[in-house]
Amino acid sequence: MAKMAASMLQQGEDAFRKLFKFYRRKNPPPDFSDVIDFSKPGNHSRKVFNCDLNAVLLSDGDACRAGLHPVCKWKAFGLDGYPGFIFISNPFLPGSQRHWVKQCLKVYPQKPNICNLDMHMSPTDTDNLWEKSRDQIRQKCAAKREPKSLLEKLRWVTNGYHYNWDTKMYSADHCTPFPSDLNALSEGVAAACGFQNFKAEAGILNYYHFDSSLGIHVDESELDHSRPLLSFSFGQSAVFLLGGLRREDPATPMFMHSGDIMVMSGSSRLLYHAVPRIVSSPDKQAVPQCLVQELADDTPEDSVVQNVSEEDWAVCAKYIQTSRINMTVRQVLGLGKAFPTEPDNENTVDIQPGTYHEGSSDSEESKVKRKKQ
């Protein structure tokens, strides 16, 4: 991997962008042998080490109520050279991932939350996307090329403090209630990683298909960078690139499979990253095996994770055969802090937090504009 990165720099193109284009390439398809796969112990790079979590801050009961195994059973890893980066390999209880897939497709896109379709459609047209799309998705034939439903045109949804894609900022008056179930999951994972007072305030959900990618970017629009960025992946797998503090720094490739969680904190909170490619799940089944299982009958009554009906799962399963859903959760404000009355324009760093691309091999990078100090 080091030789590949060095070669890219010698050829006059920054290492990250070159690597993004390499994994984005269709013909010939890229070689994935350098991609770290945390689900396979024998496929770990020398960079990988086991990471200790805090089983005291997240009790077994609270973990179970969030649809998670006890923390002592989680497989967590760190990477040399990336302090504060934690990768948790699918800590979800059997059947619980279904809940999050259904929420991301049926519940979280509902108004008053905001989605990409609102940019060019009326609120009436983007209301109840699930109801308007479910029959079309359920009846789709894989052998035919058919028009996409509205739900399949969904690219992103925001909840909590809504990110403003024009100003690249959050604001106090652009906010809806943050989902209570996602809050419980996020606070639990953050606590297990040592962030006991984490407050889930903003969520961005990204919806990928096999021809989708996410451009090179850094998430720094939040006003408090001492809190971690949490990322939850469901459905098909992704190649994720983790870079450095500079956009041109070399990146490390890794797979994110269904159920995997990433935590970017400390020195890794403001690292550049990207998703150049969506690939089939490692078990090569249409629906990943971890999503085939149903929720156990002994799930606690007060669990935030609920059983998904057969009717709803038929739609979700059809969708997830060709798609990946990613939930990113972040704390926007420091504890006890409020939004400033006026933005401080002198020190503003105007960075697009990730350009979502579909079906384009050249649109792999987001524009970065830094104002003079």
Question: Care to describe what's here?
Answer:
This protein has 373 residues and is α+β, with helices and mostly antiparallel strands. The chain is 20% helix and 21% strand. It is built from 8 helices and 16 strands. The strands form 3 sheets. A 9-stranded antiparallel beta sheet has the order 1-2-3-11-8-13-6-5-4, covered by helices on one side. The chain has a 5-stranded antiparallel beta sheet with strand order 10-9-12-7-15, with helices on one face. A two-stranded antiparallel sheet has the order 14-16. A hairpin with a 5-residue loop joins strand 2 and strand 3. Helix 1 (2-10) crosses helix 2 (15-24) and helix 4 (97-107) crosses helix 8 (310-320). The two termini are 36 Å apart. Its cofactor is Fe(2+). Residues 199-333 form the Fe2OG dioxygenase domain. It holds the Pfam family 2OG-FeII_Oxy_2.
Notable traits:
373 residues, alpha+beta, 9-stranded antiparallel beta sheet, 5-stranded antiparallel beta sheet, 8 helices, disordered C terminus, oxidoreductase, AlkB-like
Task: Walk across the major sheet and give the strand order.
Answer: 1-2-3-11-8-13-6-5-4
Shape: globular
Mean pLDDT, as a whole number? Answer: 86
Unreliable stretches (pLDDT < 50, length at least 5) are: 5-12, 344-373
Separation of termini?
36 Å
The residue fraction in helices comes out at 10-25%
Count of DSSP helices?
8
Biggest beta sheet attributes: 9 strands, antiparallel
The total beta strand count reads 16
| Cα-atom radius of gyration | 20 Å
Output the helix-strand order: HHEHEEHEHEHEEEEEEEHHEEEE
Quote the beta fraction: 15-25%
Cofactor: Fe(2+)
Keywords: Dioxygenase, Iron, Metal-binding, Oxidoreductase
Organism: Huso huso (Beluga)
Pfam families: 2OG-FeII_Oxy_2 (PF13532)
